[in-house]
Amino acid sequence: MSEKNIRSAMNTMTHGVYVIGTHADGKYNLMTAAWLSQVSGRPPMLMAAVSKSHYTAELLKASSRFSVSVLTKDQRETALKCGSVSGRKKDKLAEVDVEFTEEGLPFIKGAAACIICEVTSVTESSDHCIFIAEAVSGQVFSGEALLYREKDFF
Ligand SMILES: Cc1cc2nc3c(=O)[nH]c(=O)nc-3n(C[C@H](O)[C@H](O)[C@H](O)COP(=O)(O)O)c2cc1C
Known about the structure:
The protein has 154 residues and is α+β, with helices and mostly antiparallel strands. The chain has four helices and eleven strands; from the N terminus they run H-E-E-E-E-E-H-E-H-E-E-E-E-E-H. The two termini are 23 Å apart. This is Flavin reductase family protein.
């Protein structure tokens, strides 16, 4: 099977659309992520695959906590704003409606839910860092979750 076929097949997979909120060394950032999923029930744990080159990977290595905003169907624009430019170049918090958790982590106003995670381990998977984290708190708001399909975004 050619690499193109493998990519095409994998691109038929659906994911949610999330925004990872970080705060480290006085710096804040927001990054859209689709490669994020639950990996354990008790305790509730998830993994986030973040490109090694992204600012978010740098901030996550400097801080053990992050927020996950579960975007709603009407937040596609927010996904694009947080997913098309690096926080190294632009203050994305100024581009979208943002709130802060008790822990001081940024999250997306109007998200369907917000989950606070604490990193327990980091592994490398070729070009991505895999952050394994325990979900330490969560809140459900309202709205239906946005689904990621490659053709809707790229
Ligand atoms: C819908 C969507 C999903 C994305 N999913 C991921 C992902 O799971 N992992 C990742 O590393 N980048 C993902 N990206 C790309 C990053 O969000 C993007 O490169 C971002 O600008 C990196 O920001 P940062 O440098 O501020 O961390 C996604 C982008 C979009 C639009």
